Structures are given as structure tokens and as C-alpha cells.
């Protein structure tokens, strides 16, 4: 839905001032113009101070005054001044800010659920909420005719856009009504506030959904005229609509949480269903339901359902890569029911960012992926949390001037979550056959190549690896999906995704919070292609090394038997085997095109991995295909050959 760029909360103060006929700015401008004109006339400049001297000049002064009056009859152009900024209420600390909650209830049409039964459920639910939740919630419970059908199916059909649209329409209507009632001073009739009828809601919807500025302005003029009951003079509509269009801000939605509830009767069983809509995150939960056969327990079951759905909100005051300190909303109002206790040890939150404009209106909401806060040390209004994240940038680095850093409690309610692995640049292409390992505790990172450990440290690390619980291992199917079941012992788990020998992604996950989750992995196709070619080259290298060692052993054996013809044959075979430079050339040919493709994608990770694969092959080749060893063996053959420096001494009859 496109909200108008006009800001409605400020509008009607200035509009109604114009509508009431406040022309003091114009009158003031006219008076100033008349005084300036009078000062410019000769009579005003040369007027004597005595009355007697002034009498002869009376005709001339009178004519000049008449001329001045004639000149001042021309009305100066009106002066337009924008209305003053809105008077914002004092900011309330989040721990003193109450949750503004609305519970719209729909009842299935049934003879056993008549008006008395419905009103009894509403009254009893208000009593339970007042007794168990107390002042933590500013609660409103109403019947909801706008939810259709009047059953659980109607609750399931509600979408984020429908709820947000309705709350915006209600906020506009409330702002208009309050401004007219407060500032009209009886010029316009003030009727008691009542729910929006279809006609009024239709008018508002037309205004809010019109993309063209000119058409929207015209619709807004008509709406203002309709609300005012036709009391606005026609000649003032242009000025009024201009102020409305230029200087009004959209009203802030005053609701924090919405719990639509349905009550149905199936045989002798009463079924209640509900879900939570949260304004701060603009998220809506799946439908939850409870049932009872006791007619008197319906309100109690609704209250229990609300305890399961309630997701508290906290404000992140400070954070670093491993910890965060949060402040809980409405934490000064302690509920009597332990089920509504907001934070316990082990409570988990997911952080979110609310980006605001200059008028503190939310422009965008963004969640920090694969990041969770776990409460560990509790205070009355605050808690210290552990941060588990798969994002490299620390949580505390995200603070901005016009941004609210919040976190919402997680209530896992599903039996499993399905991960869909896709590349970052092309999400329509699933990643098939990738290895997914799920750990309860993440394994330590592998040691660096230049890091040296003592034998005791190595033994301790090996013992810890043996004692560590083995991970659950999965492979992505042809759709790139992996289904991970909930672990009842550990809510937080760590996922490691590998492609071949490369670790592509590592992140925490709370299984059961979402049914489907998209995992964007680096596109590893280039590296996989190179790894396949390097694997073939490695096998060729192993064969070459083995064959070279076999030929070298054969040469020495034949030298002992003085089979020099066969020795020469083996030396020729040894020289014909590929050497280090040959393998270096092949590695360069494999790497060249792959690195160019990675650079075109600006994929530095794949580029570095491709270089590392080639370097590993060349490192092995440089050790086992050292040309110096071949040359030393050939020199040894020449020395041992008959007629050589060593062989000459062995010839019989020679000195």
C-alpha cells in the first residue's frame, strides 16, 4: 500500500484554522502596507506639530489621505506560511511503555452461541486479562465483523497487508476525528467516534491507494468536505487541500499487537484459534488452536492461547560480537500470571532494525539473518544475552542515527524446518548434493598452517574430537532442500554446509521457528570444476611419482647386474616422464580460465580457493619431482658405467 507523502497528524490544525476564516495574516499584511503608504505621502512627512498650523493644510492633507485610502484598497496577495511542526509527546522509556493490544473476536453463527454467550466470553476474558496481565497491556476486546468468514478460516486468511491497511485506515480516521473535535470550536458538528462504515472506509482507501498526486489531492479535498459535513466554503477548499497535501504526516499506528480470535462449536467441543500480529516487526504467526468441552472454560482457553502466542519486544542497548544488553518493553509492569513473564534464562530473541525518517516514521524493517540472542543474566528490566551469529559484522556495528535496534522473542512451534540451498547470484538454481552437517556445539576451527602445537595439545585436541558428539549429516536433494527435525534438548544448532572439501557456510539456526528458510551460499561451480580437473591431475601426479620411483629402483638393480644396455633404456624412460615444469604448466592452464571467470563475478573467495588447489598440487610435485634428484641419479650411472671414474677401476687388467 502506498501511503501519501502528506503527513496527516499535522494537517488539520492548520487546515481548520484556514477553514474557520483565520485571516489575521492577510489583515496584518494589509495594515502594514497601509502604514508604509501613509509614511510615503508628503502630508505625513511635512505635517506640523501644532493644531493651528495644521488647519490651513487640512484640504491638502484630506486629499492626500483620500489618495492613500484609494491606493490601499488593493488587497495584497495572501501570505502562505506552513503550519508549525507537531507537538510530540515526551519520549517514554521502553520499560515504562505499555503494550497496546487489541483482541477482535469472531463467533461462529450457532444457536448455542447467542448474544449473551458472546458478551459473557468478552467480559470474562477482560476479567482474566486484568487479573493475570494487569497494566502491562492496554487492552481492547471487541467483536470483529470485518473478519470473514466468522470462523478459524477467516483468521487464517488474514494477511499482513490487510491488517496493516486496516490499522492505517483506523489511524487516519481517528486523527481526523480528534482534530475536528478539538479545534473546530463548535463550527463543525462533533459526533461520537464510531467504527468506520463501508462508505467512509471506501473513501479513505481511494485516497490512500491513488498514485497520482493531482488525483489524490482532489480525492482528499472531497474527503475533507465530506467529513466536515459540507461546512467548508467552496473558495477555501483549494487552500485547505494544499495545506493537507504538503504539510501532513501519516499518523502513527497506535496498536502494538493484534490477536484475532475465533470461537467455533463442533459437536460438543468448543474450538478457539488465534495468531499474533506484531507492529514492530510486521510479522504474523501461524494459527494456533485449543479446544475444550466445558462451555465455561472458553475464555480461559483463549487466555492460555494468548500466553503461547505472546512474543515480547526488547530494545538492544549495547552489543559486541559475543554479547548484548537488552531492555524489555513494559518490564516495570510485572504480570501476575507467570505465563506472561517476558524474559527467562534461555529465552531467545531475533534482532531487527527499524529505519526511520526525519519524522520518526518507519520506512523499512530488516532482520539480521542467522543471529540469535540468548538471555543468560536477568535483572528487573534488563538482561545480558549471548550472541550467536553467522554474520561476520558484529551486532554493535549496525547502530545508526535514525534506526531502532530491537529484538523479538522466538516461540518455536513447528516440528522441523526445511533449508533450501541456492547460489547468491541465481536463486532459481538449486544446489544439489551439498553436504549439510548439523552440530549441537560447533567444532573448533582448524589450525592454521603456520600454527605449531605441542604433542600434548595435539593429543588433547584428538581426544576432544573423539568425545564430541557426532553431527547429523544430510545431503541436499534435487530441489536443493534439506529437512532438519527439532532437537528437544538443544534449541540452537549450528549448520555447516560443504561442497567437496570447501566450507561454504556456517551459521546458527533455531529449528521450528520457520517452515522454510532460504540459505544463500557462494556459487561454487567454478571451484568444483577446477577441483575435478585438479583431482585428475593429482591422480596423474601420483602415477608419475610411483612410476619414477619404480624406474629409479630398476636402474639401480640393473646397475648391480651390469646390464648397461637395459640401464640406458631405463634412463631414457626416466627422462621421458613428466616433470615439475610439465605439471606447473598444466596447473596454470586449468587455473587461468577459472580465475578469469571468478574475477568477472568478483568472487574473491573462489579465486583464492582455486589458487590454493593449484598450489597444493605444485607443492607435492616440487617435493617428489625434483630434477636435482634425477640429475644426481644420471651422474651416478655415468660414474658406475664401465669406463667411468668408478667403473674404470673395476675393469680387470687396468692399473
What does this structure look like?
This protein has 655 residues and is an alpha+beta fold. The protein is 42% helix and 21% strand. The chain is built from 19 helices and 22 strands. Strands 1, 2, 3, 4, 5, 6, 7 and 8 form an 8-stranded mixed beta sheet that branches. A 6-stranded antiparallel barrel has the order 9-10-14-13-11-15. A hairpin with a 2-residue loop joins strand 20 (492-499) and strand 21 (502-510). Helix 9 (198-209) packs antiparallel against helix 10 and helix 14 (525-560) packs parallel to helix 17 (604-624). The chain is elongated and about 125 Å long. The termini are far apart.
Tally of alpha and pi helices: 19
The unreliable regions are 1-72, 79-86, 186-193, 236-250, 648-655
Helix content: 40-55%
Characterize the main sheet: 8 strands, mixed
Short description:
The protein is built from 19 helices and 22 strands.
How do the helices and strands line up, and which of them pair or pack?
Elements: H1 8-19, H2 24-40, H3 42-46, H4 51-54, H5 58-72, E1 99-107, H6 115-132, E2 137-143, H7 152-157, H8 160-183, H9 198-209, H10 213-227, H11 237-247, E3 257-258, E4 261-266, E5 269-274, E6 277-278, E7 283-284, E8 288-292, H12 298-309, E9 313-319, E10 323-328, E11 348-356, E12 362-367, E13 371-378, E14 382-389, E15 403-409, E16 416-423, E17 435-439, H13 455-467, E18 472-475, E19 481-485, E20 492-499, E21 502-510, E22 516-521, H14 525-560, H15 564-576, H16 580-601, H17 604-624, H18 627-640, H19 647-650
Parallel strand pairs: 1-2, 1-3, 1-4, 16-22
Antiparallel strand pairs: 3-6, 4-5, 5-8, 6-7, 9-10, 9-15, 10-14, 11-12, 11-13, 11-15, 13-14, 16-19, 17-18, 17-20, 20-21
Helix pairs in contact: 1-8, 1-11, 2-5, 6-12, 9-10, 10-11, 14-15, 14-16, 14-17, 16-17
